[in-house]
Each structure stands twice: as C-alpha cells, then as structure tokens.
Amino acid sequence: MAFGINREELTKWKEAVSRGEIAFITHYWLEPRFPGIKTVTKVGCANLERLTEWCAQNGLDPKYIHRRRPFPHFDLIGPKQKEILQKELLWDQLKRFHML
Fold first, then answer.
1. pLDDT value at position 30?
2. Which distant-in-sequence residues (6+ apart) come within 8 Å of 13 by Cβ?
3. What burial letters (b/e) apply to 73-97, b meaning 16+ CB within 10 Å?
4. Number of C-beta neighbours around residue 17 at 10 A
5. Of 5, 18, 2, 13, nearest in space to 77 by CA
6. What are 5-36's pLDDT values in tens digits?
7. What are phi and psi for residue 38, nearest 5 degrees?
C-alpha cells in the first residue's frame, strides 16, 4: 500500500520515466514482507538499458528491476535508499519522509 504522495507528484514521475530519465519518487509503504520498513523510493526509467547501467553504477543488482511497462523501476528500501537519496541530493524526499 502506497501513501504520502499526491497525483501531481506521481504524474511528474511517470512523465520523467516515460521520457527515459532516471526519476525518483518516495512514498510511505507498508509491506508485511519487510517489517520495520516504512518507505520505498522507486527509481524509474523507461530506457531499461539506462536503468540497468544506473543500478550497476550504484551497486544494485539489475535483476531486481521491476520490468513493468510503461514504468519500469527499481525499489530502494532500507539503508541503501537513504544512501542513494543523499548521493542524488534529494534532500526534500529525505526530510519529508523522516530519513534524516
């Protein structure tokens, strides 16, 4: 279950993904398989080659890319999520979702 984002934010993320950009969107998330995890950041890009390269450059296994069309994405959770948001200078998402 996703919550904590609005339609405008989701639309902007989808548009960026569709253009082949590496795009980030963070939202609150409850998933029983991951106790204690409260947020997820979806790193999307319609260009699967570019997204695969991005994963490799960040030490992430591309086999975990969700190859869902039209919005393929990689789910970041836990410490790696915070690390990458900091690396990408996405301070607004870090602050908004209480990761700092």
1. 86
2. 23, 24, 25, 42, 44
3. bbbbbeeebbebbeeeebeebbebb
4. 23
5. 2
6. 899 999 999 999 999 999 999 999 888 899 99
7. -115, -10
How many domains does the structure of the chain reveal?
1
Nearest to 100 by CA among 21, 20, 90: 90
Rounded CA-CA distance 77/47 in Å is 22
Structure confidence by residue, pLDDT tens digits, 49-75: 999 999 999 999 999 999 988 999 999
CA distance 74 to 28: 16
What is the C-alpha to C-alpha distance for residues 1 and 18, in angstroms, rounded to an integer? 23
Smallest CA-to-CA distance from 74 within 88, 86, 89, 63 is with 63
The residues, any chain, with a CB within 8 Å of residue 62's CB and separated by 6 or more, are: 51, 52, 55, 56, 74
Residue-number span of the structural domain to which 37 is assigned: 2-96
